[in-house]
Structures are given as structure tokens and as C-alpha cells.
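User: Sequence recovery, please. Input:
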């Protein structure tokens, strides 16, 4: 190998001048490559001439719709349509609407029978909304008055076509019949009249003895009141003792309603109050052996014996024994009596 053929050792690169900034030694970036192929350099072959497709352009019609935005520029206000001049006549602004339309001046012209007078007539008539409101208000006022003064109930509900006489002067009997019949009929005039009974014992025993005493009270009322016609119903209430089972005694009340003009006579018994056997033994001991009405009962009432045993007034012994007063028992039985009587009146009216 000749001296000229010896390999040359590459020279070390000349260090760059230290200017104090490393980026100063970096060469500037070269131009980014362009990958877009020109039509004439697609390949190494001859240049390809681009083919231009001829598109058939249809002539636009003058009536073609132009673009219209979905939301108009003046959002919230009606605008004139840009579709065509003819269509713009159908879109009007609120200011262009007429102030009133003759067809809408009267509700009755649009909806026959729905005018103000027709509505008022239906509202005020029986069963109408105003009628029901008035009845509800009247009921509320009556309830308030009777709560403040319970005696006003008799005054507010008295009257009407129903007039009833109770064969007794005891308030517990008269007020019970009055409350029951006024509750069923709405309005009723109920009065009492003294009606003693001497046909049976002071304390009847058995329903037969009680019925006999009630019939005598009814007859006494009609005989002592000459102006009392047979068309006026009379009610008698008689308390009695009943043995439902051996040594099982109860005190009950028999209610009898009589109206001779319609041939109506209704009988109904109240709920019973249990009586201890010791009370019956006391009644038997207090009744004389020669008592005239010993066959129909005792000469002493059960109320006097039970009141002495319970140490309460004789009118309150039922409540002291069971928690239910005699008046409550009579009101419940009288309501059943009034309901039955009302049905019988309806049947008699239908037959005539």
C-alpha cells in the first residue's frame, strides 16, 4: 500500500465558539417536506393529464326558495314571512289584530245556554252550587248557635208539616223524641202532655204489661185534648223489666207510635240495661202481697232501687251502671222509630 493509499484519519471537528448560549450552536431548521404530489410528478412515468368531468348544471328557477334562518332575527316578535309576498298577508302582528270581534262579544252567541243569566239560574236553583253553599253556611251557623245555646236547637228545627205529641211530661222522653224526629225529617214540632197510667203496676214486668200501659197513655192524651185529631201521631214510652233467660233481667223501654187516620201503629224496643238479681229481690220485697197490680209488676220502680244502690239520682242509674244514659238509649230507639214512620208515610202517599 502506497503512502497515498493510506487511510486518512478524520480530523476532529472544530469546537464552536462559546457565545454563552447553547441554542446558538443549533443549525436553523430546514424547510418542511411537502407531500403534495403535483399532477406531473405522480410517478416516474409521463405526466398524467387530469380529467375534468363535465357536470350538467340545471338552470335555477326564479321561484326557488331562499335560505331562511330557523330563528328570526327579531326573536319573540311576529315577522313578515319571506317566502312570498302572498304568504305575508297571513302573518300579522298583534297590533294589526282587530280590537274585538263581533262574534265573541257575547258568550251566549258562541255557546248557547252558557250565558251569565243561564249560569246564575242553574247556580241558584235547587241543587245548584250557590244553593249548596247557602245550605252549608246555614248549617254551620245553626251548629254554632246550638253549640253556644243547646236550647236553640228546638227553636231552629221546629216547624214544618210534622206535629207530634209525646204522652209524657218528662223532659228525657220529650227531648229524645224531638231530637230523633228532627234528625230524620229535618223539621218537626214535638210537644209533651201528661199522661198517667193506672192499668198496670208502677214497674211493669214483660212486654205485654208495658204495651198495656203505653196504650192507656195514648188514649188519655187523645181523650183530654179535643182538638187533637186522629191525623196527629202520638208517641208513648214505657219502661219495663224483661227476663230474657233464667235469672237474666234487663230494663228496656217500649216505644209506641199511633196515628189512627192512616192505620199506623209502630212498636219498637230500646237497648236493654242489665239488672242484677239482687235488685229484683229488692223489688219483690218492697211490693205488698195485696198489691192490686201484682200480676203486671211491682209497686216500686227499678230506678229507685238502682239509684239507692249506686247512690245516684234515679234518672242516672243506667249511665252509672253501664256508661250509657237512658236518653242515649231513647234517642237511638226513637231514630229507628222515626225512620220506620217515614217509610210508612211514603208508602201511604204512593198508594193514594
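Assistant: Recovered sequence (352 residues):
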Amino acid at each position: 500500500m502506497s503512502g497515498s493509499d493510506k487511510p486518512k484519519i478524520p480530523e476532529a471537528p472544530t469546537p464552536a465558539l462559546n457565545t454563552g448560549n447553547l441554542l446558538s450552536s443549533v443549525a436553523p431548521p430546514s424547510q418542511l417536506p411537502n407531500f403534495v404530489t403535483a399532477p406531473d410528478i405522480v410517478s416516474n412515468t409521463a405526466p398524467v393529464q387530469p380529467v375534468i368531468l363535465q357536470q350538467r348544471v340545471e338552470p335555477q328557477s326564479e321561484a326557488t326558495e331562499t335560505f331562511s334562518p330557523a330563528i328570526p332575527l327579531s326573536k319573540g316578535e311576529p315577522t313578515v314571512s319571506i317566502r312570498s309576498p302572498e304568504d305575508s298577508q297571513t302573518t300579522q302582528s298583534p297590533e294589526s289584530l282587530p280590537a274585538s270581534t263581533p262574534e265573541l262579544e257575547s258568550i251566549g252567541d258562541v255557546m248557547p245556554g252558557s250565558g251569565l243569566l243561564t249560569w246564575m239560574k242553574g247556580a241558584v236553583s235547587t241543587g245548584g252550587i250557590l244553593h249548596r253553599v247557602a245550605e252549608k253556611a246555614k248549617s254551620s251557623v245553626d251548629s254554632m248557635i246550638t253549640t253556644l245555646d243547646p236550647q236553640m236547637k228546638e227553636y231552629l228545627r221546629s216547624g214544618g208539616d210534622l206535629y207530634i205529641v209525646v204522652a209524657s211530661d218528662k223532659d228525657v222522653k220529650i227531648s229524645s223524641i224531638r231530637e230523633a224526629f228532627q234528625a230524620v225529617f229535618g223539621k218537626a214540632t214535638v210537644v209533651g202532655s201528661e199522661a198517667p197510667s193506672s192499668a198496670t203496676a208502677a214497674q211493669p214486668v214483660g212486654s205485654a204489661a208495658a204495651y198495656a200501659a203505653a196504650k192507656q197513655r195514648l188514649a188519655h192524651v187523645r181523650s183530654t185534648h179535643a182538638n187533637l185529631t186522629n191525623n196527629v201521631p202520638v208517641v208513648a214510652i214505657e219502661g219495663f223489666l224483661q227476663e230474657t233467660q233464667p235469672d237474666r233481667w234487663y230494663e228496656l223501654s217500649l216505644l209506641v207510635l199511633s196515628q189512627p187516620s192512616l192505620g199506623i201503629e209502630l212498636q219498637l224496643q230500646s237497648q236493654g240495661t242489665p239488672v242484677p238479681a239482687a235488685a229484683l229481690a229488692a223489688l219483690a220485697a218492697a211490693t205488698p202481697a195485696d198489691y192490686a197490680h201484682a200480676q203486671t209488676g211491682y209497686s216500686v220502680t227499678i230506678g229507685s232501687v238502682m239509684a239507692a244502690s249506686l247512690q245516684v239520682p234515679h234518672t242516672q242509674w243506667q249511665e252509672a251502671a253501664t256508661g250509657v244514659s237512658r236518653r242515649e238509649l231513647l234517642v237511638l230507639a226513637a231514630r229507628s222509630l222515626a225512620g220506620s214512620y217515614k217509610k210508612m208515610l211514603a208508602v201511604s202517599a204512593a198508594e193514594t
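The radius of gyration is 55 Å.
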